[in-house]
């Protein structure tokens, strides 16, 4: 998962391949709570691992549920509809509405001494209609801050079941879902009726709830969308084992990707047309815009059809979350697209109507907005510039409002015809539902290699270039290449394969080097997923590297390998010929220097910390001799590229050096 403060997406050209989606957030959190309310044990497979599900898991653990977590499989020992904790409990619910609302209702019916709070945005998300309904039932709930909003305190109820429970349906379907999940706990003696006041929005999410309740033994009688009856004698029964479908809302980004991007198409694994999730109907909207979609029991295949996409007018009540993706698709359409009945966007993680409109305008589009609608005008499509286009694509930073869906939607703007980059601020917010979203996107998207940014760092031995380069790479979310280590790894791999390091085995070593399964994570070197850092950093490792470095076929093979490290979203390349030979057009080259005395001091501390004896004067003499040899070599001599910026870090901390390189990089970006 990207933990950077921003992620720059270079202009993307196309996409081909397959993706496997994480589990549905809506299903995951419902299944967790329902399993906790059962008697006995439930094994949940393919559970989403995200911020929201971790919030729910933590809450269940606080309540005394038995939890055994093994990857995406969770075994839950339920509470049997009774709480074992008489002592007060305070729950932190983050910004997880799918955890906050149902848990509030269940705890209010069961009773206790509970406080529920969250992040500041959670305290701005309305819950008053749910609280009003629960109070009519006889639940004891107090507001600890602003009336109608969390945080809440829950006490012991005095349940009154003789009249229907009324709840508004036009703000959030989660209020009705919460009641449907909580009231079976009180329906042992008599049936309980819920009446919806006003139009029920997001009906497909209620269908998910009803479907899952049936899996757990609760057969709710639905009378249209206004009246729901929970029968007397209802009791939760564990299904034993249950599988969580992949998230249909998350599928929308890759359905849109297939519709927008050039290529052979995208296959989405984990969800198909028969999904119980309402957002699967996003497929219909994408097809109306021109996407070509085929599907099977647990998969979808999408490719570009009509281009430009077709403008549409759509009532989005049935796909409230996935409809956000249509906003960005509309930028690639042949006219204005109107999305209606999206009032629920205003009470989500942020006011999504305001957010989507504001970020589209920053991209250059004209957007009109109303209380429950958006009209989005397209932007130019290269050779297909249309009269309806109102502006030009702009390179901009997308503010994500701590909203995962905003971040994922606007990643699709990187396919713009102006070939300008797009910055996603706070990319880690996708952890709410899809922690690996950007990694999955980059696994299928492709770009012109010349558009993928590269930063080169070179310098003399012991100048700290490896530490600097790996830290800058981590700050930017870029891949890291330690080219100096490649010869060491090649020699190590050759010896492991039973080869000599002599010229007679040159062809075999070159072939091995061309496909070397090496990866750099920070200052760790992984060969075929095994950490070989210490093995190659030894003195013998350096001598072995010198032997293979003089073999021309090996050097040629490693050039190809190094060029292959230039992958989305960018590369930080550390090595003496990175900026002069391998990536001569790199937009930033840094030549890192330090005095021989300072480098000797650093090397001395490093060796002493590892338990080796060392003499600082000898180390300095060795470094000066090494510098002289490196600068006079006929192949890849130690010298800065003509356009390199020199950074003397003799008196700088590593943090200051990293900050300087990042400042240089930022000054060259179109974002300012």
Structural overview:
With 672 residues, the chain is an alpha/beta fold. The protein folds into 3 domains: 6-22 and 246-448, Enolpyruvate transferase domain (UDP-n-acetylglucosamine1-carboxyvinyl-transferase, Chain, Alpha-beta prism), CATH 3.65.10; 25-243, Enolpyruvate transferase domain (UDP-n-acetylglucosamine1-carboxyvinyl-transferase, Chain, Alpha-beta prism); 450-667, Rossmann fold (3-Layer(aba) Sandwich). Strands 16-17-15-2-24 form a 5-stranded mixed β-sheet. Strands 26-30-25-31-32 form a 5-stranded parallel β-sheet. Strand 20 (367-369) and strand 21 (373-376) form a beta hairpin. The longest helix has 17 residues, at 616-632. Residues 383-389 have low confidence and may be disordered.
Outline the fold blueprint.
Blueprint: E1 6-9, E2 14-20, H1 25-37, E3 41-45, H2 51-63, E4 66-70, E5 73-77, E6 89-92, H3 97-110, E7 114-117, H4 128-137, E8 141-143, E9 152-154, E10 165-168, H5 173-182, E11 192-197, H6 203-215, E12 221-223, E13 227-230, E14 241-243, H7 248-260, E15 262-269, H8 282-288, E16 292-296, E17 299-303, E18 313-315, H9 323-329, E19 337-340, H10 352-362, E20 367-369, E21 373-376, E22 396-398, H11 404-410, E23 422-425, H12 437-444, E24 445-446, E25 454-458, H13 465-476, E26 479-482, H14 483-496, H15 506-514, E27 518-521, E28 524-527, E29 530-531, H16 533-536, H17 539-549, H18 552-563, E30 571-574, H19 578-582, E31 588-593, H20 596-609, H21 616-632, E32 645-648, H22 654-667
Parallel strand pairs: 2-15, 3-14, 6-7, 10-11, 18-19, 22-23, 25-30, 25-31, 26-30, 31-32
Antiparallel strand pairs: 1-23, 2-24, 3-5, 4-5, 7-9, 8-9, 11-13, 12-13, 15-17, 16-17, 19-21, 20-21, 27-28, 28-29
Helix pairs in contact: 1-2, 1-3, 1-6, 2-3, 3-5, 4-5, 5-6, 7-9, 9-11, 13-22, 14-15, 14-17, 15-18, 20-21
